[in-house]
Amino acid sequence: MNGARAERLANELREREIDVLLVATPVNVRYLTGFTGTNGLALIDAGRPAAHRFLTDFRYTTQSAAQVPEAFDREIVAGDMLEGIVETLTASRGEKGRLGFDDASLTVKQHARLTELLGEEWELVPCAGAVERLRAVKDAGEIDRIRAASRLADEALRETLEAGLVGRSERDVAIELELRMRRLGAEGASFPSIVAAGAHGALPHAEPRAREIRKDALLTIDWGALHEGYCSDCTRTYATGERISARARETYELVLAAQEQALAAVRAGSNGKELDAVARDLIEAAGEGDHFGHGLGHGVGLEVHEGPRLSRLASEDPLLVGNVVTVEPGVYLPGRLGVRIEDLVVVTADGQEVLTRLSKELTVVA
Ligand code: ZN
Ligand code: ZN
Prior knowledge:
The chain is an alpha+beta fold. It has helices spanning 4-15, 26-33, 61-67, 81-93, 108-118, 130-135, 140-161, 170-183, 246-264, 272-285; strands spanning 20-23, 40-45, 52-56, 72-76, 97-101, 122-126, 188-189, 194-197, 218-223, 225-227, 230-231, 234-239, 297-299, 306-310, 324-327, 330-333, 337-340, 343-348, 351-354. The strands form 6 sheets. A 6-stranded mixed beta sheet has the order 4-3-2-1-5-6, sandwiched between helices. The chain binds zinc ion (2 copies).
């Protein structure tokens, strides 16, 4: 971790004529400073030379000294953090300026308090998404971590499936999967695992139940590992016996075709709206459009859901080299079954790198 990310952000701030950006969301603070504690704030300075600041409290004196790079002046605030910000700001920048803040996360109460403390000469400027836009483009080190998380999650699933599925509970499979990810070196799961058999699979965000998994059904597993701060995300749907219904088989093949076509279309210059349409058009043409109620995918990084989004409502901004996204169409037949297939893919200079290595052929795990 060095100050390079803060510098890139400072460049953007200059373009928007923001003097200082207040970064308070922990994941954004971590991205910019490397700090993994729960109470830290960054003030990114657009001036030259930049004087970025990092504020935390007494508990994190040692940790912040070890994690936060030289590019930031560290301050330990004894009292109220907002007062600390204002003191730092007025000491370094004087009585007036433009302070950017994240209007998607700063509370109304905090905003009112800042306005009161800063006085009229400081203008508070909404800047939601500034750090998130940087985070959407991963560097090589970040991609290495996501790749490692993905490999680890793949391996944990392989091991978990060795014991079979039929007769176990969804909950038991989810617990084993999470335990195996931890044993393989993950900090934990990147989100609560979904294991959903039969009609339960028709709920896209089903919670694993204590109920026994039956033979000859479809079963969806959606899980991911958290590794060195970075997430993976993958979904596979299996058959728990050879004798699944014709409708189940057709649905699987439809989702697989949609997934493969959309995945193949992922490259720099494509956009989230058109990629979503690649999968959706195929599913709609098969008469199942109403059963694909969510977007095609999302970015993955420090958070399991981040930018860029791949959906009907996504922007038409092109995908960029370094974006890491999921491609996960699904078809859900209420009361009957569900199929979702999800891969994690990196947009690279010469195309794409699919991180998920597990087979997508309809596989029987009984
Ligand atoms: Zn997923
Ligand atoms: Zn996902």
